[in-house]
Amino acid sequence: MKLASLVCVAIGLCATSHAFAQEERGRDGQVNIIYWQAPSILNPYLSGGTKDTQAASLILEPLARYNENGELTPWLAESIPTVENGGVAEDLTSITWVIKEGLLWSDGTPVTSEDAVFTAQYCMNPEGGCAQLKNFGGVSTVEAVDERTVKINFEAATPFPYGPLVGLQSPLIQKAQFQECLGPKAPECTTENFGPIGTGPFVVEEFRPNDVITLVANDNFREDGKPAFAKVNFKGGGDAAAAGRAVMETGEFDYAWNLQLAPDVIANMEKGGKGTSIAAFGTLVERIMLNQTNPDPSLSADERSVIGPHPSLSDPAVYQALSLAIDRPLLVEIGYGQAGKVTCNLVPAPEAYASTSFTCDKQDMDAANKLLDDAGWAMGADGVRVKDGVRLSYLYQSSTNAVRQDFQALIKQWWSEIGVESELRNISGSVFFGGDPGSPDTFQKFYADVEMYANEFDGTDPQSYLGQYTCDKAPRPDTQWQGENISRFCSDDFDTLYKQLERTAEASERHQISKELNDMIVSNGALIPLVHRGRVSGKSNTLGGVILSTWDSELWNAADWYRIK
Question: What domains does the chain contain, in order, with CATH numbers?
Fold first, then answer.
């Protein structure tokens, strides 16, 4: 099935409204959702893992979020502030949001501007480790103007002021619940992190980390008759194949996230007749992150992935050769089919932001070997190159998933052909993306030389996403190992140019600067882009109202879901 036709293929899939007003909340019983990477926490400020932020989106909501077209849409706010309507200062140094009247937290207490102020303070606390700090870049103060009005002030003119409290990764949390959880205490607040009080359509009844979440309809949800479902059974664990079968073959579940499976496997599942796949392209990129620091196990826990540079990955010849040795079209073919495209960029979309500086659609072993030869990496008797006593031998880790393990095996073979040895390791996605500061196996700690995963950004402007790569965003012990600069890439030139992006309003200039920042990340070996992935999930034929957004949480409109009778 063509990707473009997958968005509106099933009965009710593209419905944007339903006759809720005359019907009771919870009338359709239970909906069953399966995320084969099981959520570990329900506080998106303490985990950058998609599985965690999306699960939390059923409970916690932002002032505004992005719809299926990537358009910024008011959510808890009355409207989107702009310069034209007076919500954004003419000098671009502030943005003022007005919260909808009468909003209640699920415990029945009012949502106020003080909650918005507190949320910013929670993430921006210098002693804490906020996984979403990039969204608050350049913020100087956040103030409550009145009970429903919050003003965010920036250190300088900020042409794109829609980072703080906007989108999947930056929802409001309740001050009354989290006020004792600031700074280093944040990860210790288990009750709060596992059961946040929110404004969303559902409320946590029980949370078993890395297993099951049971949610019930929020009696204080702002829209009458919503949600249609009284209960959510949110199952985590297993693998993508089992999740797909549970929706499309057995009908045990209604929605399966992230069917990272070969195209023929999905097609065979659809023959089961219980459900269908849905897909759309956004900004999701499968990539290999290259550690810029030294993960040597002989270093102490506080030194690993903090002390740099890396013994060999700091050499341009090495990371360029690693990229040249990869056959990206073959990876697309075996892993994603029509739901994948070759990419050389961290930012593959929207088109206006996509760089054209690189070509990477052809594998070139001769060029890769010549680069290493010319750089003095001599082939050893064991087939592994060495220079000054340093061997090109890497621990290559990723989350457990059939497609990723296929990719690892192929890339290991290709790298061996240019004299690079790799030890493969795969880690349960629940652990790898879990963000537990006590675990040695998270992607943030990066106790390996290279690691592979995918992520994306909210909305259609990549400013905050590119801001992940400034020097100060690197995960460290003093940030509870939270931070978005996973490879620990650090460049003063990059940081300076990023500051320029923050101050640039003219669209074409923003496009150009963003491309230059993308090129600096890729050409300096922070990562190797592989595949621009379409987001593919599965839905039951009896589940209506689902509208897939690649620009926000897949569950962004779960309040509109209903059972097709």
Answer: 281-460+528-534 (3.10.105.10)
